[in-house]
Amino acid sequence: MRMTGSRRTFLVLAVLCGTASIAQAQSFSICHGYGCTFKTKVSLTAADQARIASIMAAGRGSAQAERSAVRRAVQVFERRNTQVIGVIDRPKMDFGEGRQKGQMDCVDESTNTDHFLRYLQSAGLLRFHTVDRRDARGMFIDGRYPHFTAVLRDRSGTLWVVDSWFEPGGGLPDVMRLAEWKVRGVGGAR
Fold first, then answer.
1. N or C: which end of the chain has fewer CB within 10 A?
2. Is residue 108, in this structure, part of any structural domain at all?
3. Cβ(131)–Cβ(151) under 8 Å?
4. What's the mean pLDDT in 30-58?
5. Which domain range does residue 171 map to?
6. Rounded to an integer, what distance in angstroms lies between the CA atom of residue 76 and that of residue 171?
7. Total of domains in the chain
8. Residue 10 falls inside a structural domain
Protein backbone atom coordinates (compact mmCIF):
# COMPACT_ATOMS: atom_id res chain seq x y z
CA MET A 1 0.00 0.00 0.00
CA ARG A 2 1.47 3.34 -1.05
CA MET A 3 0.78 6.23 1.35
CA THR A 4 0.41 9.83 0.35
CA GLY A 5 2.56 12.38 2.13
CA SER A 6 -0.32 13.72 4.22
CA ARG A 7 -1.50 10.23 5.25
CA ARG A 8 2.07 9.23 6.15
CA THR A 9 2.57 12.44 8.16
CA PHE A 10 -0.72 11.90 9.98
CA LEU A 11 0.18 8.29 10.77
CA VAL A 12 3.64 9.18 12.11
CA LEU A 13 2.22 12.01 14.22
CA ALA A 14 -0.61 9.84 15.50
CA VAL A 15 1.81 7.10 16.52
CA LEU A 16 4.15 9.60 18.18
CA CYS A 17 1.25 11.08 20.12
CA GLY A 18 -0.03 7.65 21.08
CA THR A 19 -3.43 8.24 19.48
CA ALA A 20 -3.17 5.48 16.89
CA SER A 21 -1.41 2.20 16.39
CA ILE A 22 0.10 1.05 13.18
CA ALA A 23 -2.46 -1.28 11.67
CA GLN A 24 0.01 -3.54 9.92
CA ALA A 25 3.19 -4.98 11.37
CA GLN A 26 6.28 -4.31 9.26
CA SER A 27 8.02 -7.61 8.50
CA PHE A 28 11.54 -8.31 7.35
CA SER A 29 13.32 -11.46 6.23
CA ILE A 30 16.45 -11.25 8.39
CA CYS A 31 19.61 -12.86 6.99
CA HIS A 32 21.98 -14.69 9.31
CA GLY A 33 24.35 -17.65 9.34
CA TYR A 34 26.77 -15.89 6.92
CA GLY A 35 25.81 -15.14 3.34
CA CYS A 36 22.08 -15.28 4.17
CA THR A 37 22.28 -19.02 4.89
CA PHE A 38 19.25 -18.62 7.18
CA LYS A 39 16.36 -16.21 6.94
CA THR A 40 14.05 -15.51 9.85
CA LYS A 41 10.87 -13.47 9.61
CA VAL A 42 10.97 -10.59 12.07
CA SER A 43 8.07 -8.19 12.49
CA LEU A 44 8.37 -4.81 14.12
CA THR A 45 5.61 -4.36 16.65
CA ALA A 46 3.54 -1.19 16.80
CA ALA A 47 5.65 -0.20 19.82
CA ASP A 48 8.88 -0.80 17.84
CA GLN A 49 7.59 1.27 14.95
CA ALA A 50 6.49 4.09 17.27
CA ARG A 51 9.89 4.09 18.98
CA ILE A 52 11.69 4.19 15.64
CA ALA A 53 9.42 7.00 14.39
CA SER A 54 10.12 8.94 17.59
CA ILE A 55 13.88 8.48 17.21
CA MET A 56 13.73 9.62 13.59
CA ALA A 57 11.53 12.61 14.47
CA ALA A 58 14.24 13.76 16.89
CA GLY A 59 16.68 13.82 13.96
CA ARG A 60 14.61 16.09 11.71
CA GLY A 61 16.74 19.22 12.27
CA SER A 62 19.68 18.48 9.98
CA ALA A 63 21.35 15.81 7.89
CA GLN A 64 23.86 15.21 10.70
CA ALA A 65 21.05 14.82 13.26
CA GLU A 66 19.27 12.42 10.91
CA ARG A 67 22.40 10.25 10.60
CA SER A 68 22.61 10.12 14.40
CA ALA A 69 18.95 9.13 14.53
CA VAL A 70 19.56 6.43 11.92
CA ARG A 71 22.27 4.94 14.16
CA ARG A 72 19.84 4.69 17.07
CA ALA A 73 17.00 3.38 14.89
CA VAL A 74 19.23 0.64 13.44
CA GLN A 75 20.14 -0.28 17.02
CA VAL A 76 16.43 -0.72 17.90
CA PHE A 77 15.92 -2.77 14.72
CA GLU A 78 18.86 -5.05 15.52
CA ARG A 79 17.76 -5.56 19.11
CA ARG A 80 14.37 -6.69 17.82
CA ASN A 81 16.10 -9.11 15.43
CA THR A 82 18.23 -10.68 18.16
CA GLN A 83 15.15 -10.97 20.37
CA VAL A 84 13.26 -12.93 17.70
CA ILE A 85 16.20 -15.04 16.50
CA GLY A 86 17.21 -15.72 20.11
CA VAL A 87 20.94 -15.15 19.58
CA ILE A 88 22.98 -11.98 20.03
CA ASP A 89 25.34 -11.72 17.08
CA ARG A 90 29.00 -11.42 18.03
CA PRO A 91 30.93 -8.46 16.59
CA LYS A 92 32.61 -8.95 13.23
CA MET A 93 32.68 -12.60 12.21
CA ASP A 94 34.65 -15.70 13.00
CA PHE A 95 36.21 -17.29 9.92
CA GLY A 96 35.11 -20.89 9.54
CA GLU A 97 32.18 -20.37 11.89
CA GLY A 98 29.48 -19.88 9.26
CA ARG A 99 26.09 -21.57 9.35
CA GLN A 100 25.52 -20.63 12.97
CA LYS A 101 22.03 -19.41 13.74
CA GLY A 102 22.04 -15.71 14.58
CA GLN A 103 25.65 -15.02 13.61
CA MET A 104 26.08 -12.50 10.80
CA ASP A 105 28.80 -11.63 8.35
CA CYS A 106 28.90 -8.32 6.48
CA VAL A 107 26.67 -9.72 3.73
CA ASP A 108 23.95 -10.47 6.30
CA GLU A 109 24.45 -7.18 8.15
CA SER A 110 24.48 -4.98 5.05
CA THR A 111 21.44 -6.74 3.57
CA ASN A 112 19.43 -6.37 6.78
CA THR A 113 20.47 -2.75 7.29
CA ASP A 114 19.70 -1.91 3.65
CA HIS A 115 16.18 -3.35 4.00
CA PHE A 116 15.63 -1.39 7.20
CA LEU A 117 16.86 1.87 5.65
CA ARG A 118 14.46 1.28 2.75
CA TYR A 119 11.67 0.85 5.30
CA LEU A 120 12.61 4.20 6.88
CA GLN A 121 12.60 5.80 3.43
CA SER A 122 9.23 4.31 2.39
CA ALA A 123 7.69 5.38 5.71
CA GLY A 124 8.79 8.96 5.07
CA LEU A 125 11.16 8.93 8.04
CA LEU A 126 14.21 10.05 6.04
CA ARG A 127 14.19 13.75 5.23
CA PHE A 128 17.80 14.52 4.31
CA HIS A 129 18.89 11.19 2.83
CA THR A 130 17.87 8.52 0.34
CA VAL A 131 18.98 4.91 0.30
CA ASP A 132 21.68 4.12 -2.25
CA ARG A 133 23.11 0.81 -3.46
CA ARG A 134 25.13 -1.23 -1.02
CA ASP A 135 28.87 -0.90 -1.55
CA ALA A 136 32.03 -2.88 -0.80
CA ARG A 137 35.74 -2.48 -0.14
CA GLY A 138 38.71 -4.85 -0.07
CA MET A 139 39.97 -7.46 -2.51
CA PHE A 140 42.49 -9.58 -0.52
CA ILE A 141 45.40 -8.34 -2.71
CA ASP A 142 45.11 -4.94 -1.03
CA GLY A 143 45.44 -6.46 2.46
CA ARG A 144 41.72 -6.23 3.13
CA TYR A 145 39.04 -8.86 3.30
CA PRO A 146 36.01 -8.01 1.10
CA HIS A 147 33.49 -6.10 3.22
CA PHE A 148 29.98 -4.87 2.38
CA THR A 149 27.87 -2.05 3.81
CA ALA A 150 24.53 -0.29 3.44
CA VAL A 151 24.69 3.27 2.04
CA LEU A 152 22.75 6.53 2.33
CA ARG A 153 23.06 9.54 -0.01
CA ASP A 154 22.55 13.05 1.36
CA ARG A 155 21.11 15.94 -0.63
CA SER A 156 24.57 17.13 -1.70
CA GLY A 157 25.29 13.70 -3.20
CA THR A 158 27.69 12.63 -0.45
CA LEU A 159 27.48 8.92 0.29
CA TRP A 160 27.41 7.65 3.90
CA VAL A 161 27.90 4.08 5.09
CA VAL A 162 25.77 2.50 7.79
CA ASP A 163 27.92 -0.43 8.90
CA SER A 164 26.81 -2.52 11.88
CA TRP A 165 29.26 -5.39 11.37
CA PHE A 166 31.86 -4.25 13.90
CA GLU A 167 29.50 -4.35 16.89
CA PRO A 168 27.49 -7.19 18.43
CA GLY A 169 23.80 -7.35 17.51
CA GLY A 170 22.10 -4.22 18.82
CA GLY A 171 25.28 -2.15 18.94
CA LEU A 172 25.46 1.27 17.33
CA PRO A 173 26.56 1.05 13.68
CA ASP A 174 29.37 3.09 12.20
CA VAL A 175 28.06 5.97 10.09
CA MET A 176 30.75 7.77 8.10
CA ARG A 177 31.48 9.09 4.64
CA LEU A 178 31.84 6.29 2.12
CA ALA A 179 35.11 7.82 0.86
CA GLU A 180 36.59 7.55 4.39
CA TRP A 181 35.24 4.02 4.90
CA LYS A 182 36.66 2.85 1.56
CA VAL A 183 40.29 3.44 2.66
CA ARG A 184 39.91 1.76 6.03
CA GLY A 185 39.83 -1.91 6.99
CA VAL A 186 43.45 -2.98 6.47
CA GLY A 187 44.22 -6.10 8.52
CA GLY A 188 40.62 -6.34 9.76
CA ALA A 189 40.78 -2.97 11.51
CA ARG A 190 37.70 -0.80 11.58
1. N
2. yes
3. yes
4. 96
5. 23-188
6. 9
7. 1
8. no
